[in-house]
Amino acid sequence: MPDIHTLHDSSDEFGPMIVTDDGQCRVLSFAPNDEQSRSLKAAPHVLQYEYTQAMLLVLLFCQPRRVLILGLGGGSLLTALHHVIPGIRITAVELRQSVIDVAYRYFQMPHGKRLEVVCANADYYLCEPLPHKQDVVFADLYHGTGVDDVQLKADFIARCADTLKEEGWLVLNCWNEHREDAVLREALREHFADIRTILTSSRNWVILAGRKPSWRTNSEMKETAFQLSSALGFPLTRHLARLRALGE
User: Fold this and answer.
1) pLDDT tier for residue 232 given thresholds of 50, 70 and 90
2) Residue 210, Cβ neighbours under 10 Å: how many?
């Protein structure tokens, strides 16, 4: 067993926040026996969780230049996207300023003119008119007890859709139990023409929803996945095989 060292242990109005280090990885936790983020110290851009890797399947359907991330954690998605896509503009919205501070201090989250991190309630943030439409919105709103219920509500899905460009995509990280959520399914079908999902071995249910249908063939997507895998540091192709249309 590796020696695990606690680097940070604090609480704010939303609960505890702990950062540990096992020599190879840094881990952010919001509750006992919880992992919110895991970062490989030698290569922080390489996503460590299966579900975050699966969320990047959206790169097979579009080449985003402008991305909105709702829920920061240790900044893993921001770091990966910044590494893989030169010139990308990313705005990340995080409820807790203490989480933002920890992501910069312990998780090697990059700085840059094209990167903006906003401390705000993600749902409220979407209620205000944004200066630019987004190519992709990633929503991963979690706390110590699981997914934030706001992420499953019809008005939240509608606001995400309104934030996107005409050919934009929404990526949601949910749980297996949400596969039968009728409100969520109806909201997705109302606002999106192309809805695909992947159930990971960790029982995360990742949703990719495009405002317009994608006509990319499996062979085209496999080729793109193969090309991206080297830069990402993991085989994106292994997740593509489990991607299904909503309802299959």
Assistant:
1) very high
2) 20
Q: What are phi and psi of 231, to 5 degrees?
A: -70, -35
* pLDDT per position as a tens digit, 50-78: 999 999 999 999 999 999 999 999 999 99
Q: What is the pLDDT of residue 144?
A: 65
Residue-level pLDDT at 142: 86
Q: Which CATH fold would you assign to the domain 45-245?
A: Rossmann fold (3.40.50)
Euclidean distance between CA atoms 200 and 244, whole angstroms: 12
Helices (H), the chain: 50-55, 76-84, 97-106, 122-127, 154-163, 182-191, 218-232, 237-240
Domain range list for the chain: 45-245
User: CB under 8 Å to 191, separation ≥6 — which residues?
Assistant: 157, 158, 161, 209, 211
Quick one: DSSP state of residue 134? E
The answer to whether 73 touches 148, Cβ cutoff 8 Å, is: no
Residue with tokens 């020599």: 23
**205 bridge partner residues:** 174, 199
Q: Count Cβ atoms below 10 Å from residue 186 Cβ, excluding itself.
A: 12
